[in-house]
Recover the amino acids of this structure.
């Protein structure tokens, strides 16, 4: 694959060798062009998340797999590739080993490119998400978000099997090792987790252990994570809640497995239940709300399946009888009412956190109001308990012995305390982000007359060592005093705010690095929220 190099006297004297060199170099260039096509096919399939191999890759097969079929399709319009696939005897590029080698080569180049991008970024944020793959193994994904001159970048780097590593110590060790490998130990400014099973086993421990090594790595709620998912994964530490959510997800799965059951659901309930995705990204609130709203209709549906048993298979009858029993069970009804009220408030908060137009202080105020609202749910216990008794009757079984009201009151309080702890831990570091208001153009006029010392102190406390604070304060004062009614100045101000322009009035060239650092930090932190 290597071309021959500089002009040599002996080659000029030997015409035959010169021609051989030309032919060799032409062949090398053609081979490189063919290899480019193979690599582009690998990149295309990877980008589209399509499998490479086929069940039957023989020439007689109608479908030889995406990789071979894609090459064949391209070859119909590419004479060079068609000639190569038809005549090559040494390297065709279609074997499974070659496919794996090309995938590994592309992955290696991408990894090195990402590392190079990260090495140039002044600040990064780490996101860890856990999900279950098709082989039922727990996979932890590592994502880095950072800022370059071209804008905000978010790179998925790798997945790692954590099936046997579910302790907080294990996850924290993997996170720190990953950061050290990519040279991010001194650059990390934010960390966020999804709250799923692996992370929930020691979420506070994970972020705390990372903070022990990197104190400036604030624990931030990621806007991509549904708040109700985080809360529901937290309360499943309570045994009774875990059982409740298991039954609830089973109800949704029951209908997703059969078109006949789904049709019956449409006819009787006139509303479908949200699907429970295997990755657990979408769960909790919509399902709780739908089951609560359609509880009586679901009872009629399951009763219909049991009564018309001749129309359904044994598995459907067995499941329907169990779910019918659950819907008439006091404990299930009690939890359904409890979480329906909690998640209704959490949905409102989640929508606010998803809206990028709200400033940090507004969001923190809404979080405080949510906590107050959850505290107020303690006074709702008697009403929830009495309404559930009217609907299902008193608790039966072991709960019927002793004071069942006291037992469920303790359980109700435990749920509320767990929710409060989850929210407080999730947002405790957000108070340190009040400095983001320094770059809110809607407040520039008021900041001009009264400099935001509190917000500036927040920046100093959280990330002071990364800034030339006296120079930054001067720049902010100049920006606040600018004539924002002038269109040109307004445009320049926006450029400064977005980090596209690093020269603000009195600032000299030496100030550009600090300003760029402020842009990078702000963009990284915004992306992590």
């Amino acid at each position: 694959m290597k071309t021959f190099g500089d002009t040599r006297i002996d080659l000029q004297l030997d015409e035959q060798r010169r021609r051989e060199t030309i032919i060799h170099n032409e062949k090398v260039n053609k081979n490189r062009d063919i290899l480019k096509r193979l690599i582009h096919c690998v990149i295309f399939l990877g980008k589209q998340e399509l499998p490479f191999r086929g069940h039957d890759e023989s020439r007689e097969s109608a479908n030889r797999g995406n990789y071979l079929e894609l090459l064949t399709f391209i070859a119909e319009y590419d004479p060079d590739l068609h000639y190569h696939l038809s005549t090559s005897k040494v390297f065709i590029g279609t074997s499974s080993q070659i496919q794996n080698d090309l995938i590994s080569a592309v992955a290696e180049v991408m990894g090195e490119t990402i590392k190079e991008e990260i090495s140039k970024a002044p600040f990064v944020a780490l996101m860890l998400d856990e999900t279950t793959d098709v082989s039922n193994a727990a996979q932890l994904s590592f994502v880095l978000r950072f800022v370059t001159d071209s804008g905000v970048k978010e790179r998925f780097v790798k997945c790692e099997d954590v099936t046997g590593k579910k302790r907080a110590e294990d996850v924290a060790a993997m996170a720190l090792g990953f950061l050290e490998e990519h040279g991010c130990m001194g650059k990390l400014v934010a960390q966020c987790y999804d709250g799923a099973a692996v992370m929930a086993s020691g979420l506070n421990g994970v972020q705390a252990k990372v903070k022990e090594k990197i104190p400036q790595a604030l624990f931030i709620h990621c806007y991509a994570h549904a708040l109700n998912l985080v809360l529901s994964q937290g309360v499943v530490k309570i045994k009774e809640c875990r059982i409740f959510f298991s039954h609830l997800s089973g109800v949704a799965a029951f209908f997703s497995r059969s078109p006949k059951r789904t049709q019956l659901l449409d006819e009787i309930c006139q509303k479908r239940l949200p699907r429970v995705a295997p990755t657990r990204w979408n769960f909790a609130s919509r399902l709780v709300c739908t089951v609560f709203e359609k509880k009586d209709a679901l009872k009629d549906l399951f009763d219909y399946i049991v009564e018309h048993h001749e129309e359904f298979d044994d598995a459907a009858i067995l499941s329907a009888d169990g779910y019918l029993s659950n819907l008439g069970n006091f404990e299930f009804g009690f939890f359904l009412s409890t979480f329906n009220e909690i998640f209704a408030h959490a949905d409102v908060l989640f929508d606010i956190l998803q809206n990028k137009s709200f400033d940090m202080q507004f969001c923190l105020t809404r979080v405080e109001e949510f906590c107050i609202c959850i505290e107020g749910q303690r006074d709702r216990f008697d009403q929830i308990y009495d309404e559930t008794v009217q609907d299902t009757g008193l608790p039966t079984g072991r709960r019927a012995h002793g004071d069942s009201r006291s037992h469920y009151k303790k359980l109700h309080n435990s749920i509320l305390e767990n929710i409060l702890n989850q929210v407080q831990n999730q947002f405790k570091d957000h108070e340190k982000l009040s400095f983001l208001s320094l770059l809110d153009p809607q407040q520039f006029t008021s900041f001009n007359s009264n400099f935001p010392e509190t917000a500036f102190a927040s920046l100093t406390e959280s990330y002071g060592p990364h800034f030339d604070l006296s120079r930054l304060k001067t720049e902010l004062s100049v920006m606040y005093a600018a004539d924002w009614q002038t269109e040109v100045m307004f445009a320049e101000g926006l450029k400064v705010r977005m980090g596209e322009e690093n020269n603000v009035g009195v600032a000299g060239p030496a100030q550009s690095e600090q300003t760029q650092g402020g842009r990078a930090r702000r963009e990284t932190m915004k992306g992590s929220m």
